[in-house]
Design brief:
Length: 380
Amino acid sequence: MPKTATRQKEETKINKSSTNGANKTASKINAKTNGQATDKVDSKLASAEHKDRRQAQKSSIKNVEPQLLQEMLYQMVLGRIFEQKCAEVYRIGKIGGFCHLYIGQEAVAIGSMMALREDDLVITAYRDHVQAMVKGITPEAVMAELYGRAGGNVGGKGGSMHMFSKELGFYGGHGIVGGQIGVGTGMAFAQKYKETDAVTLCFFGEAAVNQGMFHESLNMAQLWKLPVIYICENNQYGMGTSQKRAMSISSIAKKAEGFGMANEFVDGMDVLAVREATTRAIERARKDGSPTLLEIRCYRFMGHSMSDPGKYRTSDEIKKNQERDPIFLFKQTLTEAKVISDKDYAGIEGRAKEAVEKALKFADESPLPDEKELFTDVYA
Ligand SMILES: Cc1ncc(C[n+]2csc(CCOP(=O)(O)OP(=O)(O)O)c2C)c(N)n1
Ligand SMILES: [Mg+2]
């Protein structure tokens, strides 16, 4: 089993040998963390990295419209408050069944998806509430779906794991680990076949990388030049199993090199680093269909699902990762750069809270699906 120190060394190597060329964000970061994101749970390294990230973010924000920066922050805060509410109402029985929260990982969805065009497509696994909302499904429709109500995104019949909207280009919401990697690859194939220049973002967790579907899909995507960006959200755990106990090598990005595919290791606590890496991947995909694998290192602050007793990691480990909270980091950067004031932030938070309250009211008032719905959308 590799030690954390070994893992860090390997990742340093990977960033250098990535086939995508220079990593602009990483090169701006000073030497304290060796210019690289670290995956060590070490408070000194984590706070040094946090400091470096703030410097990098300060330079990066100069290239982004202030309005967009504020919208990115709003979407992250909305996702966080929405999901904190989900946990609360789950505990009082308003939501039943599976419910996987995204708290801590917001920068991954927001950073990558806000680099997309409206006609681009997205597919993900079961941790899908935030991605669904960023793609345009309303908080009301997502919450009502969680409540199993008729006003839900798919009529209350899918629940937490199955948000879907063909019109908005959001293709789920999938419960079979890794299953969506094949579907996402097919979506990119369809775009190429139809000669559009739309790209597909295909999200999955690091545990899905051990599935055959990942390897078969990447091989095909590179061979056929499919405009797909594979986003591995490496939150370091597959249910209660740490990546270190389940994978023979620590670098996921490096696996792309076996297929000759462009790849990058990105700090998922930094929304702008995620946006920049995704933008580079999108440019490649639109230009000649070249796919990319992004390994975006993040951390989920909550359990795997609402029924996770969480005995496989220490509270100290969670706390250390929370010190690098992506929302806190981004808010701090925008405040220091005077893109937002404290009053602006209060406004952003207020708007998000209002949207979540509206969603809860809508879900509460929405009726249960009609009994005849038991026989609609049944394919077997
Ligand atoms: C094919 C398959 N095997 C096992 C499971 C059970 N399962 C559900 S979630 C999960 C862990 C997946 O972890 P990861 O891909 O890292 O995503 P994360 O939950 O961390 O977002 C497992 C093993 C499943 N749903 N599908
Ligand atoms: Mg995981």
